[in-house]
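[agent] plan:
  1. take the single chain provided in the ticket
  2. run structure prediction with default settings
  3. attach structure tokens to the ticket
  4. add a short note for the reviewer (M.T.)
[agent] executing step 1
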Amino acid sequence: MKKIFLLAIAFISINSIAQKLHENGKYIDANGVKLYYEIYGQGEPLLMIHGNGGSFSCFENQVREFSKNFKVILVDCRGRGNSSYQNGVELTFDLQVEDMSLFLEKLNIQKTSILGWSDGGIIGLLMAKKHPEKVDKLVTSGANIFPEGVIIFEDMKKTAIDLEKENSNHKNDLAIDLNNLDLKYPNLNYSDLNVIQSKTLIIAGDHDLIKGEHTLKIYEAIPNAQLAILPNSSHSALIENSKLFNEIVLNFLMQQ
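[agent] step 2 finished; step 3 output follows
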């Protein structure tokens, strides 16, 4: 039977997160880019994938707790954080899925659980769909499967126009690519998720940027998935309500 968790928690202010290059950071060449990563802890691997415009520093409130039980792998996606970028190569989710697949192969990791936030959750869903042999358990927070599932979709259209107008000397090239990524992709149907066999937990805030009905249909489309909705939480539930978020996710990941 599928499980739905309805949770209550007080609002916690978002902490500012500084991007840092740590001493144990390394690079891997994968799919035409250099991907920066850090690894903490030991045990079964857990790959954490961040959202659109950020870096893996968004998981600052998760690393310590999760690394007590898992080998936590943090990676900056192409063009974000300390990873490099390919100008002239269209940024798509399929491209980033192949980035992650090759990244895991170069780390000699045959199978991993995935925690993906926002766009990272989309990558996680596509990984489970396209490379099921590489995904153990999957947790997504604030993920969508087509652009119209995002509440601010119309605002993203306006942002695209503004960025193009102000793109003197190509200063907005990366920002345009990142905005276009979510404006144009992904392009899945709910039925496309029926093939996902990984044990899956779908998370969203009750005031998420992803439409509530969209999140619900994603959950319903994945066989035997679980759903957690965090009240008084926005798209940044893992930051605002990190204690509860961590408790739910760890409980799910440690289930047999």
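[agent] step 4 note for reviewer: Residues 1-21 have pLDDT under 50 and may be disordered.
[agent] ticket updated
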